[in-house]
Amino acid sequence: MKKLFTTLSNIWKIQELKERILFTLLILVIYRFVCQVVLPGVDANLLGQNQKSGLLGLLDMFAGGAFSKVSIVALGVMPYISASIVVQLLGIAVPSFQKMQKEGESGRKKLNQITRYLTVAITIVQSVGYVKTQVPEEAILINHTLFYILSTFVLTAGTLFVMWLGEKITDKGIGNGTSLIIMVGIIARLPIALQQEVTSRAAGQGGGLIALVVEIVALFAVVMFTILIVQGVRKVPVQYAKKIVGNKQFGGVRQYIPLKVNAAGVMPIIFAQALMFIPAGLTGFFPSLQNSWLSAYSDYTSVTYSVTFAVLIIAFTFFYTAITVNPTQMSDDMKKNGGFIPGVKPGQATSSFIDDVISKITFPGAIFLAIIAILPSVAVKFGIASEFAHFYGGTSLLILVGVVLDTLQQVESYLLMRHYDGLMKTGRVTGRTGIPAAGSNAAL
């Protein structure tokens, strides 16, 4: 405990770090305040208990409840994330986008601008669908046509405002803004979910308070397991040739390439979840399909949904790792800098060796990622309320763990730069890149 207070005191002594933390907290408070503002032309009293369940409940969690409250920022940063993912994929497949990625700062600015324009287009499309399907007609106080047009403009402006808040946190705050906004939205639902779970257990439903204690212990174990997966690396030794220039020696040291067990981060779950939304969307637009085999995919707790979801995650983990980790480029860079892997010839042999290592560690990483993704549905099967079960795994837990580790890494770097002790007595906090956002290396 003394170590904790000493560390907090050291953080407060660094003026720049203190200002960044306070600025970040201020922006997050503004975001949570805006989440409570309902769309103009909507009677909030007629919305009732507009709680979402299933897949829409997941979207509502990422938006911090703004989705179900019909807020002016109901869509949150999800359109921005979708646009960022599209731009990233275009950077892999389209030569002109690859060229911009290699142009440094000027190329990054061009990609940021393209991402913003694409965000506007995606938000407009999603806004139209949102107001038509999620806003009850009896809650609309003005002309419906006027309301749809006005709401589209307001929701688009709301998403752009949230995107701007995220960029301000990244520039002047601590951590990645987009990821922090998503994390705050997820955490905002935790007290309500926990209160509901405590109330239901205290009422004697499903084992009472003993079952609640078991649930908390299980949640702690799942979080620890997730941290191990996020932090796990396979260190490949690299020896650099010794060079003597004048009286100075360069190189001649052994370093390591940290290959992550989960190099794809949260992206496979996001891609897989996007595909799993399709059957639910089809059954919503075509009621005649509700009694078909597609109906099994509308319930995220069903065995069919969980198995398909897990298979898609494993496939996307291999796919995303293959397009983001380039063994040939790593081998070429190593060769240019006079480095080699002991016992492996430079060039093609090194590239094949790295590719083989990546393949071996990606498979268990994909399996573990799939397990984490389907844990919420398993928790529901064990009698845990759906709202609280979302914190047992899936995208929400990976985002929470990743963002916290990434933010702590930045705080620790400030402490070490000022010659203070880090956040841990042994080892160092290592972060991870999360949801890709334009203009940043780590993002939600």
From TrEMBL:
This is Protein translocase subunit SecY. It is a multi-pass membrane protein. Pfam families: SecY. Component of the Sec protein translocase complex. Heterotrimer consisting of SecY, SecE and SecG subunits. The heterotrimers can form oligomers, although 1 heterotrimer is thought to be able to translocate proteins. Interacts with the ribosome. Interacts with SecDF, and other proteins may be involved. Interacts with SecA. Belongs to the SecY/SEC61-alpha family. The central subunit of the protein translocation channel SecYEG. Consists of two halves formed by TMs 1-5 and 6-10. These two domains form a lateral gate at the front which open onto the bilayer between TMs 2 and 7, and are clamped together by SecE at the back. The channel is closed by both a pore ring composed of hydrophobic SecY resides and a short helix (helix 2A) on the extracellular side of the membrane which forms a plug. The plug probably moves laterally to allow the channel to open. The ring and the pore may move independently. The lineage of its organism: Bacteria, Pseudomonadati, Bacteroidota, Sphingobacteriia, Sphingobacteriales. Keywords: Cell membrane, Membrane, Protein transport, Translocation, Transmembrane, Transmembrane helix, Transport. The gene is secY. One of its GO terms (cellular component) is plasma membrane. NCBIfam families: 3a0501s007 (TIGR00967). It is found in: Cell membrane; Membrane. GO terms for biological process: intracellular protein transmembrane transport; protein targeting; protein transport by the Sec complex. The chain crosses the membrane at residues 21-42, 62-93, 114-133, 145-165, 177-194, 206-230, 264-286, 306-326, 361-384, 390-408. SUPFAM superfamilies: Preprotein translocase SecY subunit. It comes from Pedobacter yulinensis.
